[in-house]
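R.M. (postdoc): so does anyone remember the format we settled on? I'll just put the structure tokens first.
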């Protein structure tokens, strides 16, 4: 089983509008409400690719109910800790450019936080767990590290997709995969990249700090995969971008789902690239047939 943990799920409110003017009344062209949050997106794609998955995390209120109803209707297993306050709503504005306004998230009580820590202890050494996204503000700063310590004790492997100190603090525990995008990698090391060599240097740094595999995702420019043996460059197919929200999560799902089946990083990377692009080319997350149809168009070379 691949578990995912979303500490801060969301309803993603996708709004299409033309010529948005701040300070004036604007009308939407169309809108769409989707279940969101990085781990939930990973579970949705894993399920789409017929991999067993259960989404864990905190869920609350009418917004939380929207998410659980949607996931159960789609057949995605969940085992959330119910919290008192409402799950957040994140705005994804599609106008001339893509603009995102993410909520902070609900307050999580100590008892609720402890319940999730206890729940992750129940997974087995055969399982894998993906920890993704931001933390609601009331959780202790070291909450990801607390989770990882419990996971390590079970013998399960873990993947983490978060940013800043929370990511840095768990690298020594040996995550199977981390996947910063370019901006997140620059922020992590407080640097600005000017050459490809810079990206290669800091990607390798993440391996040195403890990650077993690193993907640096670069949106339409594809991605780089760093393993202990080699570095691979992945080129994404071109297409019409409809909604790139969740492209990174889809990439993680494609990679780990395939890696668990084949143990082969190159095949897994291809599935990750195809899944990321297929989501960028869809309004919602990608469908299985879209992912598979892009597989032949993805190029991976060892550099
Ligand atoms: N415009 C695009 N065209 C083709 N493929 C894309 C595009 N945007 C994203 N992808 C694919 O998805 C992968 C992940 O995208 P990206 O680097 O934007 O991740 P991210 O910043 O983590 O995204 P998000 O936070 O929205 O999930 C890319 O490496 C690429 O394979
Ligand atoms: O605020 P976070 O937790 O960093 O990111 C949350 C989020 O932007 O990430 C997903 C896309 O990756 C969306 O479904 C969701 O709205």
């Amino acid at each position: 089983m691949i578990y995912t943990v979303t500490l801060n799920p969301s309803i993603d409110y996708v709004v299409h509008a033309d010529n948005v003017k701040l300070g004036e009344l604007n009308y939407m062209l169309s809108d769409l409400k989707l279940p969101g949050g990085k781990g939930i997106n990973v579970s949705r794609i894993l399920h789409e690719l017929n991999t067993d998955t259960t989404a864990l995390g905190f869920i609350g209120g009418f917004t939380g109910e929207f998410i659980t109803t949607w996931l159960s209707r789609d057949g995605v297993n969940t085992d959330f800790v119910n919290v008192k306050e409402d799950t957040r709503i994140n705005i994804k504005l599609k106008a001339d450019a893509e603009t995102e306004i993410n909520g902070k998230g609900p307050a999580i009580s100590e008892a609720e936080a402890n319940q999730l820590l206890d729940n992750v202890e129940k997974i087995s050494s055969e399982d894998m767990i993906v920890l993704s996204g931001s933390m609601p503000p009331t959780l202790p700063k070291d909450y990801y590290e607390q989770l990882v310590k419990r996971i390590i004790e079970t013998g399960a492997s873990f993947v983490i997709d978060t940013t800043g100190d929370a990511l840095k603090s768990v690298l020594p525990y040996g995550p199977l995969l981390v996947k910063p995008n370019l901006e997140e990698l620059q922020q992590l090391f407080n640097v600005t990249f000017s050459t490809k060599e810079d990206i290669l240097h800091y990607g390798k740094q993440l391996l040195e700090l403890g990650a077993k595999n690193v993907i640096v995702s670069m949106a339409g420019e594809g991605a780089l995969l760093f393993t202990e043996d080699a570095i691979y460059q992945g080129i994404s197919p071109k297409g019409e971008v409809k909604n790139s929200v969740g492209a990174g999560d889809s990439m993680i799902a494609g990679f780990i789902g395939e890696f668990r089946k084949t143990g082969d990083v190159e095949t897994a990377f291809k599935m990750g690239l195809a899944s990321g692009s297929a989501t960028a080319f869809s309004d919602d997350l990608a469908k299985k047939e879209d992912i598979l149809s892009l597989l032949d168009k993805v190029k991976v070379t060892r550099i």
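R.M.: ...and that's the designed sequence above, right after the tokens. Also worth knowing: The mean pLDDT is 97. The first helix runs from residue 38 to 48.
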